[in-house]
Amino acid sequence: MSDKIEVLISKEEVENRIQEMADQITKDYAGKTVHLIGILKGSVFFLCELAKRIDLPVTMDFIGTSSYGDGTESSGIVKFSKDLDDSIEGKECIVVEDILDSGRTLSYVMGVLAGRKPASLKIITLLDKPDRRVVPVELDMTGFVIPDKFIVGYGLDYAQKYRNLPYIGVIE
Ligand code: IMP
Ligand code: MG
Questions:
Q1: Calpha distance 123→36 (Å, rounded)
Q2: Distance CA 114, CA 157 (A)
Q3: 96-140: per-residue pLDDT in tens?
Q4: Alpha-carbon distance values, 17 to 11, 24, 49, 70, 142 (Å)
Q5: How far is the CA of 165 from the centre of ligand 2 (A)?
Q6: Using CA atoms, how far apart are residues 75 and 79, in angstroms rounded to an integer?
Q7: Phi, psi (deg, nearest 5) at residue 115
Q8: Are residues 80 and 112 in contact, defined by beta-carbon separation less than 8 angstroms?
């Protein structure tokens, strides 16, 4: 049985917005190397599309996170399932996330990374669901603010499916 998916943000809209954000990063970090840190796996599609459009030297690394819980609601206890490969000391870091929901994941990640002496540490997220926030997180750049709906596509999954949809959709 397949799920019915309605387009919320089209491929063109997503890609135009990613271009705008990449242009902003190119301006803000002129003369520097940008170190993108993706949170696996959801941010991978967004990170690649963003990286291709940044007109500066770009390096990248990835972390994996998991949270303990009963499956539907996370307990709020987050841990790294995969740490970064390289040190971030002295680097201009931008954490790249697919969606900010409760804020638990990003708040934990930022706390850990801030202690590792980066030159700078910012956050960019493709989507933000502010209605669901439990832990406050200060975002530096947001693609789209969306209502409290379950989203798939552009890296976001439902039971590991639909990450490869080239648009952002809602499961009906
Ligand atoms: P947070 O710790 O609650 O902010 O969780 C963020 C993570 O939950 C994201 O990185 C996603 O992997 C996942 N997530 C939150 N909302 C959605 C959604 O609507 N669709 C798919 N995954 C989601
Ligand atoms: Mg994620």
A1: 10
A2: 28
A3: 999 999 999 999 999 999 999 999 999 999 999 999 999 999 999
A4: 10, 11, 11, 35, 9
A5: 16
A6: 11
A7: -80, -5
A8: yes
Owner of token pair 């919320």: 8
User: Looking up tokens 């933000």, which residue turns up?
Assistant: 128
Measured distance CA(75)–CA(41) in Å, rounded: 20
Q: Note the pLDDT tens digit of each residue in 52-105.
A: 999 999 999 999 998 765 555 556 788 899 999 999 999 999 999 999 999 999
**Catalytic positions, written as ranges:** 101
> Which of 99, 124, 128 is the pocket-test mutation for ligand 1 (most atoms within 8 Å of CB)?
99
Cα distances (angstroms) measured from residue 35 to each of 3, 58, 121, 165: 37, 6, 10, 26
User: Which atom of ligand 1 sits closest to the CA of residue 43?
Assistant: 10
The residue written with tokens 């493709």 in the block is 126
The pTM of the full predicted model, rounded to 2 decimals, is 0.94
